[in-house]
Amino acid sequence: MNTPIVDFLEDYTKRDPLRLHMPGHNGENPHDITEVAGADSLFETDNSGGVIAWSEQIAAKIFGAERTCYSAGGSTLAIQTALALLKAQGCKTIAAGRCSHRSLVSAAALLDLDIKWLYPQEYPSAAVDFSEEAVSGAYALFVTNIDYYGGTCRAVSPKLPVVCDNAHGAYLKFVNKAAFGREYLHPMEFGYPVISAESAHKTLPALTGAAYLHFSKGTDYSRAKEMSAMFGSSSPSYLILESLDRWNGKFLSDQDCVNRACASVLRLKKRLIAAGFTLRKSDPLRITINARRWGYSGQDFAALLRSHGVECELADANYVVLLFSAVTTTEDCQRAEISLELIPRLEELPLIKYPVIKPKKELSVREAVFRRQKSVPVAEAAGKLCGGIQTPCPPCIPIVMPGERIDGEIVEALQLYGVKTVSVLE
After folding, report:
1. Top-tier CATH class for 4-253
2. pLDDT tens string 334-382
3. Are 335 and 310 in contact (CB under 8 A)?
4. pLDDT digits 0-9 by tens, 129-185
């Protein structure tokens, strides 16, 4: 029995009870239930016999984790939980790549954590210096395993606790590294203790909001459920939990599905290169196209793709990102190829250089976030202190952080990134 949550929900539906309990649709969506008898509870700390705990144990075995906790609140809830665990262990400062997801910043505000920023060479790269000298003064590291363009970076033999934002890389555990890239490791393959937050819904066939919090050997997960309950809804979606459970069953019945998808994407990459497209190096389930080499901005290139029936994951001034999944088929890739071939090639455009800004910090993230603020046009923000988390979405990476002074360079950068207004302290 590889899908205990699915099995319970199907059995409950077959019994057709009079539903005098939440949710209020009264069974219109039959698998959408609350914590009825036998359904288990996501945040129970002593539920070793329940269907959710059972499913989590199956997931932990699949991913090679010591402990896996489900999240119905995406990787954001998983990151909040991981950082809360570090806070409970005495963490005050965490070293993190500047191009980290906004959930790190919001969690830092809630938990009163200081962030020591490590700057990449380009935006929005995850590649930063995690050397002992670079992270000195920090209690822990926050690493992004795959960035939006498909780049990767990880610490080597760190001497600090590590939290990994692996939101885009859950599928990597199942990838044949020899065939598709040895540098793209799943955090449970890093070889040192790590807590990994990762979305299932980005690259695995799960519902939006489905995510994991994996604990490797050598990490403390004793309070994981308690900390998760601090941030998560007390009514987590059973439909989301069911989708996580279904992936367990699908993988165990077809363990090569991810590699088949990776092979289809790799063939597409090779065909696109042969057709003259310029691709940025990326992980096995992502294609990052340099649109400017084809004569377009990324946004214009994406609009043309959309007119041909293809919606991309991300488009900026330079690149278009196509994100595939563990259930991508050869037919999906063929359809993408046909749509790309319909885009006429124009005269090459120079790449837009996105600046990596290093603002001056004057207040902690927490102090700034919880002070009185007002929204102003970016052009009027010079000289003011940032109060909100300013981030285009995707990629959900803040440009300027709460508590940092906005100067003329930052105004220009915000405008380049497409940010129209900014929250500043009154």
Report:
1. alpha beta
2. 999 999 999 999 999 999 988 888 999 999 999 999 999 999 999 999 9
3. yes
4. 999 999 999 999 999 999 999 999 888 889 999 999 999 999 999 999 999 989 999
Report CA-CA distances (Å) from 161 to 82, 95, 143, 220. 11, 11, 11, 10
- For CATH 3.90.1150.10, list the domain ranges present in the chain: 257-341
pLDDT confidence band for 1 (50 / 70 / 90): low
- Please determine, for residue 392, whether its predicted confidence score (pLDDT) is greater than 90: no
What value does the CA radius of gyration of the chain take, rounded to a whole number of Å?
22
CA distances from 389 to 7, 368, 373, 403 (A): 42, 10, 12, 10
CATH code 3.40.640.10 region(s) in the chain = 4-253
Q: 365-425 belongs to which homologous superfamily?
A: Orn/Lys/Arg decarboxylase, C-terminal domain (3.90.100.10)
Rounded mean pLDDT, 76-105 = 97
What superfamily does domain 257-341 belong to in CATH?
A: Aspartate Aminotransferase, domain 1 (3.90.1150.10)
Q: How far is CA 12 from CA 8, 30, 35, 246, in A?
A: 6, 9, 12, 17
Residues of the chain with CATH 3.90.100.10: 365-425
